[in-house]
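Q: I'm building a small set of examples for a reading group on sequence design. Run inverse folding on the following structure and report the sequence directly after it, with nothing in between.
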C-alpha cells in the first residue's frame, strides 16, 4: 500500500522518507505528505533535538530499539530520510499502515 513512503536497501534495511514539523504541540504521526510520512514533534529544530525526537517516534511506530533508527539525510531540512534496521519489508508496511490508520483517533495516542 504505502511502498512509495520508503525504499529497501540491498542490506534489507528500509529508508523512510519523513516530512517533519518541529516545535509542534505533540509528537505524533500526522499522515502523509506526498511521498513522505508526515510527523510532528514537540522538540525544537535546534542542536538535532527534533531529529532525535523523530528517531524515537519512529522506533516506537516500528517497535524497534532507538539504535535501529538513524537519520541518513536532510539533517537540517523538514524533508528527511531515516533508516530502519531489523525489520522485513512486510512488517514495515504493516506498521506504517497501522500508524496511518490511527491518525486522528483517540486523543493521547502517539500513533
Amino acid at each position: 500500500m504505502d511502498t512509495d513512503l520508503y525504499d529497501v536497501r540491498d542490506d534489507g534495511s528500509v529508508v523512510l522518507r519523513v516530512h517533519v514539523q518541529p516545535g509542534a504541540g505533540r509528537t505524533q504521526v500526522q499522515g502523509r505528505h506526498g511521498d513522505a510520512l508526515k510527523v510532528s514533534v514537540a522538540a525544537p529544530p535546534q542542536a538535532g533535538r527534533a531529529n532525535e525526537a523523530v528517531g524515537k517516534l519512529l522506533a516506537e511506530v516500528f517497535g524497534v530499539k532507538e539504535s535501529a533508527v538513524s537519520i541518513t539525510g536532510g539533517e537540517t531540512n523538514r524533508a528527511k530520510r531515516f533508516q530502519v534496521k531489523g525489520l522485513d519489508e512486510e512488517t514495515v508496511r504493516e506498521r506504517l499502515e497501522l500508524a496511518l490508520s490511527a491518525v486522528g483517533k483517540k486523543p493521547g495516542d502517539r500513533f
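The first strand starts at residue 6 and ends at 8.
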